[in-house]
């Protein structure tokens, strides 16, 4: 009997000529075009998916591809990145060394960061030759590999990278999710393998037997149902059988189980232990499960290999096909399977394997009350939490199920479960778990710990009042450790940051900070500083907010985005720029979506509308990828405002629709106020002043701090709406708020200038409007300066001071145009024309297609990529995130109608010199 590499190896290709041709064409297309593609091969077990994939890999290698080929394993489907690692660690030229992959996983704790680094490695290889990455049995891929496979093909679509995946039909696997994630970005081919035709099965029989198969054999092969693996198994038995006139020769095995029945008992037992360990397993591990010395099982190993059931590569034994392993596995009685899995876990741990490596066995074999299993599951959850929080939550939730209710360990595991579920974004589940634990009347110290653990959960759910109630109850009960009391006090202060009266909140925050410092508890320290920063922001005290967030960022660099935004509120954009560059150098430990939020605010404040829009788009994509939605509503609100400023009413309406949809999923007061303000802006643009005023009043109803976090630089627009709607009371109220904000921030030019402008609009006071323009000369915000100059110009025209008006309006027009606010510039231009100040054409909108359609940043990225830079090196030169570079590059490819970096380079080289 030949093994997997014998003369039967090409048999499965019979009848697959059309599929082979399609894969050949795809390989050629990727090599020729320089752009990516994905192919998915689906079918039932044994139908020939692996054989077809192997042939495609061979053809790609022969065509000059760098090939990485791996296989996912059912019993290793929980180990982070284990499936994709088999693709990047093996081959003639591995994409990564084992040490490099371990280093990535050990030093960095973010899924997005890991995927980006993998993308850079593949992109670098694809710069010199086309790349094929093939993964067999993707239905068993681990969660992190699934996540990566949903991101990488799209991220690398402009490089010659072909992704080839196989998946069992009928299995709830990730293939369709992967295909759906990338279908709009690169070609996706799905090959569904059906049963082989009778003619193909006949040719397969001829190949195997070395002579034409007679009708008797063909009748027998009809029982294979067109499945090439089953047919080969039947033919293997026939080929090795002695000549016989019996209707069914003695050596002919009808199906996999028939093959197994001919084995000696020791061999079958050995195979069963191996099947428990997985498709690939160690000889010594299987021998240990058999309870016998390895040397005593050498005859069993030899028989299994000789029978073509196992391959032996010197490092491990591998079932030749998973159908063989499954046939062995299902014949083990269920109770015995459970016991063997538990024993396998113990054996592997003793041999030095990591907890995550034995989790699959524990999930199948652990029984209630198994403390060792509980501890292993908890350790595995801690190990994978940074990169796969959803898996960590599942593992520790299972551990909780194994512990008897109301025991001390049950509460301890439950506290860990709350943290993991919250980190995974499963806040409702975390809250339900916490309430179930609390319902069992834990000891007072445990009660405090559980309420502290639920703090982040309640905050994420926008339940500030409930958070305050619970923390105050826990502090009143007492009995908790000092560090737990410090955390509870910090969480109470954070909850109070959403109250109307912020004076008690500030006092509570200061007290919590003192307690945190006294106990030396880092978690309490972080929570207290964050609470004080939020309180200062909500009070409009920009200097205090900056001080708190700077201190917080020093304790925990993950909060660098909050420090950057605090700098922006102080008009210190230079410091914001420095901090962004510093964060970009070490972004592996920083919340990347929030860093993009800060970067977008930086660009928006400095009047770089195109870059700001790209940042907020990228931020939204990253939040979608990790399913942690924080700034989705606000991002869409700002992008809608940007679209209106640019004159793209259709895009602005689309963003408003999306903002409303996302508000329904997260209807907190801040999001509600933001959407109401955006509705007011749209209503004014549509000429519905009454609706605009109504929406501004609704913003006011959401609370004083919310409207000021929202209206800091946009209050002038709100006042103009109120005045147009003849609602002077609302306009006065808004102006008073602006003045109060300026009093709290006397050293911030934007705050003092906006206040002067607000009062000047309400009073129709030319001197105040002129003073506002003078104050804002020191502001770094060009859109705020332009709006003030436009107001001054209109007031000067009304006063009959035409020459001065033209100067102010011309300056406003120039600043709007430089920022890309074409609609605002056009409006000012119309005022100039009406004033008889000439007919100079306003700068028009960019075309939709072609080089001139690209933004300035898109052109920079395109030129760098055309010069051979990767996304990472381009990002380093431009001091932005690689994700932002990817957004710019995606937009550039779409506008230029190119699909690969090679095509982009050819186009850029053909451009005339600037």
Descriptive report:
It is a single chain. By secondary structure, the protein is mostly helical. It is built from 48 helices and eight strands. A five-stranded parallel β-sheet has the order 2-3-4-1-5, sandwiched between helices. Strands 6-8-7 form a three-stranded antiparallel β-sheet. A hairpin with a 4-residue loop joins strand 7 and strand 8. The longest helix has 18 residues.
Write the layout of secondary structure elements.
Elements: H1 17-33, E1 37-43, H2 49-62, E2 66-71, H3 82-88, H4 98-107, H5 111-126, E3 131-136, H6 143-155, E4 161-168, H7 175-182, E5 188-192, H8 198-209, H9 215-221, H10 228-240, H11 256-261, H12 265-277, E6 280-281, H13 283-290, H14 298-306, E7 310-312, E8 317-319, H15 322-330, H16 334-350, H17 355-365, H18 371-384, H19 389-402, H20 408-423, H21 427-438, H22 444-453, H23 455-460, H24 464-477, H25 482-496, H26 502-519, H27 522-539, H28 542-555, H29 560-569, H30 573-585, H31 592-605, H32 609-626, H33 632-646, H34 649-665, H35 669-685, H36 689-701, H37 704-711, H38 715-724, H39 728-744, H40 749-763, H41 766-776, H42 782-798, H43 802-819, H44 822-834, H45 856-866, H46 871-878, H47 882-896, H48 901-909
Parallel strand pairs: 1-4, 1-5, 2-3, 3-4
Antiparallel strand pairs: 6-8, 7-8
Helix pairs in contact: 1-2, 3-6, 5-6, 6-7, 8-10, 12-13, 12-14, 12-15, 16-17, 17-18, 18-19, 19-20, 20-21, 20-22, 22-24, 22-25, 24-25, 25-26, 25-27, 26-27, 27-28, 28-29, 29-30, 29-31, 30-31, 31-32, 32-33, 32-47, 33-34, 33-35, 34-35, 35-36, 36-38, 38-39, 38-40, 39-40, 40-41, 41-42, 42-43, 43-44, ...
């Amino acid at each position: 009997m030949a093994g997997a590499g014998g003369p039967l190896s090409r048999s499965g290709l019979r009848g697959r000529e059309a599929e082979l041709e399609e894969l050949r064409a795809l390989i050629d297309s990727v090599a020729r075009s320089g752009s990516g593609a994905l192919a998915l091969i689906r079918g039932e077990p044994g139908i020939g998916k692996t054989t077809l994939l192997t042939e495609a890999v061979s053809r790609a290698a022969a065509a000059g591809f760098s090939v990485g080929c791996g296989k996912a394993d059912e019993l290793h489907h929980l180990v982070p990145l284990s499936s994709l690692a088999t693709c990047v660690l093996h081959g003639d030229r591995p994409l990564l060394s084992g040490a490099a992959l371990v280093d990535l996983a050990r030093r960095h704790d973010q899924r997005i960061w890991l995927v980006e680094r993998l993308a850079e490695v593949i992109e670098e290889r694809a710069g010199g030759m086309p790349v094929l990455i093939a993964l067999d049995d993707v239905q068993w891929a681990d969660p992190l590999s699934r996540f990566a496979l949903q991101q990488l093909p799209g991220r690398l679509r402009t490089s010659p990278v072909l992704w080839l995946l196989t998946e069992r039909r009928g299995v709830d696997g990730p293939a369709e999710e992967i295909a759906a994630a990338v279908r709009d970005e690169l070609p996706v081919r799905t090959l569904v393998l059906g049963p082989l035709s009778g003619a193909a099965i006949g040719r397969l029989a001829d190949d195997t037997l070395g002579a034409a198969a007679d009708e008797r054999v063909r009748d027998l092969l009809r029982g294979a149902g067109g499945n090439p693996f089953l047919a080969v198994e039947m033919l293997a038995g026939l080929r090795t059988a002695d000549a016989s006139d019996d209707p069914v020769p003695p050596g002919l095995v009808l199906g996999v189980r028939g093959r197994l029945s001919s084995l000696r008992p020791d061999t079958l037992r050995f195979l069963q232990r191996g099947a428990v360990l997985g498709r690939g397993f160690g000889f010594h591990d299987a021998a240990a499960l058999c309870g016998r010395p390895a040397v005593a099982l050498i005859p069993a190993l030899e028989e299994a290999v000789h029978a073509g059931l196992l391959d032996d590569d010197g490092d491990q034994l591998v079932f030749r096909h998973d159908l063989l392993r499954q046939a062995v596995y299902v014949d083990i009685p269920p109770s015995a399977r459970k016991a063997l899995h538990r024993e396998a876990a113990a054996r592997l741990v003793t041999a030095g394997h990591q907890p995550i490596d034995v989790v699959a066995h524990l999930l199948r074999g652990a029984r209630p009350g198994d403390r060792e299993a509980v501890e292993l599951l908890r350790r595995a959850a801690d190990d994978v939490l940074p990169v796969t929080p959803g898996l960590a939550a599942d593992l520790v939730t299972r551990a909780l199920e194994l512990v008897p209710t109301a025991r001390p360990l049950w509460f301890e595991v439950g506290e860990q479960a709350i943290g993991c579920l919250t980190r995974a974004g499963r806040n409702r589940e975390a809250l339900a778990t916490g309430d179930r634990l609390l319902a069992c009347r834990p000891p007072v110290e445990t009660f405090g710990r559980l309420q502290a653990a639920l703090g982040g959960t309640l905050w994420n759910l926008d339940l500030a009042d409930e958070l305050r109630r619970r923390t105050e109850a826990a502090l009143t009960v007492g009995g908790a450790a000092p560090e737990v009391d410090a955390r509870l006090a910090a969480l109470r202060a954070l909850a109070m940051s959403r109250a109307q009266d912020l004076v008690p909140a500030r006092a509570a925050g200061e007290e919590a900070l003192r307690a945190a410092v006294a106990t030396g508890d880092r978690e309490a320290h972080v929570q207290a500083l964050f609470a004080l920063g939020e309180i200062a922001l909500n009070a409009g005290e920009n200097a205090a907010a900056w001080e708190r967030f700077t201190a917080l960022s020093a304790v925990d660099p993950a909060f660098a985005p909050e420090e950057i935004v605090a700098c922006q509120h102080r008009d210190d954009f230079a410091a914001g720029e420095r901090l962004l560059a510093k964060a970009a150098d070490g972004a592996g430990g920083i919340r990347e979506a929030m860093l993009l939020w800060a970067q977008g605010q930086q660009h928006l404040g400095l009047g770089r509308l195109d870059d700001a829009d790209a940042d907020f788009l990228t931020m939204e994509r990253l939040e979608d990828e990790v399913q942690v939605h924080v700034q989705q509503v606000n991002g869409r609100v700002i992008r809608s405002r940007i679209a209106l400023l640019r004159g793209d009413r259709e895009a602005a309406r689309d963003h408003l629709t999306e903002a409303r949809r996302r508000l329904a999923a997260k209807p907190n007061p801040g999001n509600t106020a933001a959407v109401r303000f955006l509705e007011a802006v749209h209503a004014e643009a549509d000429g519905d002043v009454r609706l605009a005023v109504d929406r501004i009043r609704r913003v006011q109803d959401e609370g004083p701090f919310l409207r000021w976090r929202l209206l800091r630089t946009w209050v002038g627009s709100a006042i103009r709406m109120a005045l147009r709607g003849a609602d002077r009371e609302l306009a006065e109220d808004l102006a008073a708020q602006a003045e109060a904000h300026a009093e709290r921030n006397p050293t911030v030019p934007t705050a003092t200038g906006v206040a002067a402008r607000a009062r000047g609009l309400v009073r129709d006071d030319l001197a105040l409007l002129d003073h506002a323009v003078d104050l804002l000369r020191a502001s770094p915000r060009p859109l705020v300066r332009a709006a003030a100059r436009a107001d001054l110009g209109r007031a000067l025209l009304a006063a009959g001071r035409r020459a001065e008006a033209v100067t102010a309006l011309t300056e406003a027009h120039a600043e709007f145009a430089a920022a890309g606010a074409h609609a605002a510039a056009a409006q000012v231009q119309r005022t100039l024309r009406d004033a008889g100040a000439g007919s100079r054409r306003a700068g028009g909108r960019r075309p939709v297609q072609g080089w001139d359609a690209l933004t300035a940043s898109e052109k920079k990225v395109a030129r760098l990529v055309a010069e051979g830079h990767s996304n990472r090196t381009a990002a380093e030169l431009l001091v932005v995130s690689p994700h932002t570079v990817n957004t710019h590059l995606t937009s550039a490819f779409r506008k230029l109608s190119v699909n690969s970096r090679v095509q982009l380079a050819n186009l850029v080289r053909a451009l005339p010199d600037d």
